[in-house]
Structure formats: C-alpha cells, structure tokens
C-alpha cells in the first residue's frame, strides 16, 4: 500500500508499505478520505514528529478485513473512527478530563490516516467506531472528531445548554475564519439557532464566506471592540473563541467578553508563547479563561447525532479533494491560506471544490 511518511524538516513523501493484518479485536479499513487538520500542519511546521510518522486522524474508511472476535462490523461498511480513546477509568477520566488521560494519548490508527489502508486498534473498534448511514456523506462524517473538539470548548464556555429570553440572546465572537473558526460557527448554530455570532479575520474572502455560512457579521480584527458592543448591546459577549493562537489576539479578546463571560483558547501557539493579561480583568469581573484540547467520546456521540439528524452540515467547509500523492500540495495550500478543509483520498482526486 501507499502512505505519506514524514521525512523531516517539514517534508513528507509517498512511500510503499506492507498492508497490516488485523489481530484479534482489530479492524482494517480501506481509506475513503482523511481530512488535513491544523494539528497536522502545526506538527509539520515545527518538526514536532519523529521521522517515519504517518499523520492523519480525521478518517472515513470502508471495512477491508476484520480480526477475530469482531462482530459489530461487516466488510464494505463505511466507518468513521477517531484516533484517541480514553481508558474511562483513571482519576482524570472520572473527573471529566478524558482528553488528558495518559491512555487517550495512544494513537489507535496505524500507520495513520494518510495511508491507503489503516489498522484500527481494539479499543477504538470496541468503543469509538461508527457505521455511517447512507444519508451521511464522507465529507460530513470526517468532521465528527474536529467538531467534537469544538463542542468541548463550547461546553467549557457554558454555552451548550443555554436558554435565555430574546432580550438576553446568547452572543459569541469567533476569532479566525479558517476551517476551525468556521466550524465553531456551524456547531454554535446547530446548538443554538438563535445565537448571535460575529467572526473576525484579516482576509476579506474568508469574512464573506463566514457571512454566507450564517455569521451575523464578519469584520477585520481592528474593528472588534465596536462589533462586540453592537452585537451585545454594550454588555460584552458571552464567549470569545480564539482559533488563531497568537498571544496578542487573546490579550485583545478578553475585554470583549461580558462580566462573567469566557475566553476560550482553541489553537496551538508557538512554543514558549505567553499571555500578558491584567489579573483584575479576570478576578473582579468573574471572567473565565479556558483552555480546551481535543474531544471525548461523549462529544463525538453528540456531534454524530447532530450530523445524522441533519442539524449540522459541515460540508461547505471542504474546499479541496486531493490524492495522497499530492499531500505536499495540500500542505502548501493550507499554509498559504488558499484552502479551508482539504480531504486526502486514495485516488486521483478532483482538485478544488467549493469555497477556497
């Protein structure tokens, strides 16, 4: 089989590898598509993975072979499955910090999603893999894992189950109109059709897309104080979601929140990056500064329900479909901000599709 292996200094190469055979409790998938994630790009940019690594974890595949003892699945079924599954038993899991569990860190997709065949570990087969209904396309299902990450941050901001009278409508600002910023918009809308959401990005085309996808307004970063005031009636917004990962952006975002509001950090920052915040802006006004990392099985279940119910459609975020052999091109497009979500496929692909 062919797989995209990391060779160092930000470069990857398509190589031949043996097709793995599933052992007891495991499952072999044939790749249908795998999304290129911001975490993948961060690791490549910072040379933060060992040579020989095969990245890719936003995966949809079809069952190619089953190990002994696997009875929940059948050959040919379309499957969506995450790469991380917590133990569910340790002290962190018992305290709803599943994404920090040491077991969670194990990658259960071997060698990785950017490969023509992927071996799924027993724990993921038993607890996390899902059969896709015919009504749910691959391009929607690959968002189960990243959208679950978004949902976890929304939960931490206290916005998942908020019901307020019209005069106290829920408000949010999302910093960044890349694929993850726009995914925040779509998940927020799926949870709260009446929520008021403003987006911010320096690129005009991305701001236009944000408004087309349902943002109440999308503006350049320098106008955010006025936008927050107009959106919230001068109160300050309930939550700001930072998908940029730059200290200056987060520092300027905190005053946009209302008293008792939340600033959610949802992005990798460069190593050693630090915030300079006035402590009293947090303490005296009961603001929350929240870090959120990955998503648990619980959030994945909730996102899958939204997907299958038709309440959440992330497919407009797919801008390109490219074959595995064009992986470096995909990285370049994403790095140059000329793409949103790129799907890597085992075949020839069809280039740009949708918004870019």
Explain what this protein looks like in three dimensions.
By secondary structure, the chain is an alpha/beta fold. The chain has two domains: 2-143 and 314-352, Medium-chain alcohol dehydrogenases, catalytic domain (Quinone Oxidoreductase, Chain A, domain 1, Alpha-Beta Complex); 150-291, Rossmann fold (3-Layer(aba) Sandwich), CATH 3.40.50.720. Helix content is 28%, strand content 25%. The chain has twelve helices and 17 strands. Helix 5 packs across helix 6 and helix 5 crosses helix 11 (297-308). The two termini are 31 Å apart.
Order of helices and strands: EEEHEEHEEHEHHEHEHEHEHEHEHEHEE
Rg over CA atoms:
20 Å
Tally of individual helices: 12
CATH fold descriptor of the largest domain = Quinone Oxidoreductase, Chain A, domain 1
The proportion of strand residues reads: 15-25%
Can you tell me the CATH superfamily of the largest domain? Answer: Medium-chain alcohol dehydrogenases, catalytic domain
Distance from N terminus to C terminus (CA atoms, Å) equals: 31 Å
Largest sheet: 9 strands, mixed
- Low-confidence stretches are none
Q: Which CATH architecture of the largest domain is right?
A: Alpha-Beta Complex
Shape: globular
- What number of structural domains do the residues give? 2
Q: Which structural category do the helix and sheet elements fall into?
A: alpha/beta
How much is the average pLDDT? 94
Q: In the CATH hierarchy, what is the class of the largest domain? A: Alpha Beta
Work out the number of β strands: 17
Helix content: 25-40%
């Amino acid at each position: 089989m062919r797989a995209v292996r990391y060779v160092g200094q930000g470069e990857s190469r398509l190589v031949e590898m043996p097709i793995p055979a599933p052992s007891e409790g495991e499952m072999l998938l044939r790749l249908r598509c795998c999304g290129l994630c911001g975490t993948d790009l961060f690791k490549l940019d910072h040379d933060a993975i060992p040579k020989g690594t095969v990245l890719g974890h936003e995966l949809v595949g079809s069952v190619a072979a089953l190990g002994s003892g696997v009875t929940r699945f059948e050959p040919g079924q379309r499957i969506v499955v995450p790469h991380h599954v917590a133990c569910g038993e340790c002290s962190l899991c018992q305290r709803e910090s599943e994404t920090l569990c040491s077991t969670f860190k194990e990658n259960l997709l071997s060698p990785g999603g950017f490969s023509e065949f992927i071996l799924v570990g027993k724990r993921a087969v038993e607890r996390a893999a899902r059969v896709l209904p015919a009504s749910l396309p691959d391009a929607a299902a690959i968002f189960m894992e990243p959208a679950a990450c978004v949902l976890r941050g929304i939960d931490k901001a206290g916005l998942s189950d908020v019901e307020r009278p019209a005069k106290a409508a829920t408000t949010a600002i999302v910093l960044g109109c890349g694929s993850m910023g726009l995914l925040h918009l779509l998940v927020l809308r799926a949870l709260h059709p009446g929520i008021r959401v403003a987006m911010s990005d320096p690129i005009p085309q991305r701001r236009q897309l944000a408004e087309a996808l349902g943002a109440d307004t999308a503006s350049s970063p320098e106008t955010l104080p006025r936008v927050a005031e107009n959106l919230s009636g001068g109160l300050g917004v309930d939550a700001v979601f930072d998908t940029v990962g730059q200290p200056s952006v987060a520092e300027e975002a905190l005053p946009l929140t209302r008293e008792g509001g939340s600033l959610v950090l949802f992005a990798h920052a460069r190593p050693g990056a630090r915030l300079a915040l006035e402590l009293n802006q947090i303490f005296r006004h009961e603001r929350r500064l929240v870090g959120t990392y990955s998503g648990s099985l619980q959030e994945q279940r909730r996102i899958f329900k939204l997907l299958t119910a038709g309440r959440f459609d992330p497919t407009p975020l797919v801008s390109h479909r490219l074959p595995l052999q064009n992986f470096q091109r995909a990285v370049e497009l994403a790095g140059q901000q000329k793409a949103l979500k790129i799907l890597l496929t085992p075949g020839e692909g069809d280039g740009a599709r949708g918004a870019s």
